[in-house]
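Continuing the series of single-chain predictions for the mutant panel. This is the parent chain; the variants come on the following pages.
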Amino acid sequence: MRRILIASSLLLAGCATRPQQPQPQAPAQAATPPGGVQRLEGMSTSDLVGRFGRPALQVREGTSLKLQFRGRSCVLDAYLYPNPSGILRVTHVDTRSPTGVDSDQASCISALEYPS
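Parent structure:
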């Protein structure tokens, strides 16, 4: 009799429904800030010059190019590397104050934008 009770308990336990688990939600996409770095990535040399004017410094290293744009409140370094077609495109951007302290990239980009 005891075996029958244990067997029937196990059988019923196997039929029990599981509580519903909440579905994981996809993470929210981060908004691109106005004038943000995401807007510079992929730009060409001529795109940058059109946006910021003539660079204060150009440094070639192998096939890459660093362009530096300076203003009163910040310095922007744009690093360009060739894409598969061989065209130089921005892949990384650094910004800092003239004293070398890191600065907010979106603010620096906005401050340096060349008037059209």
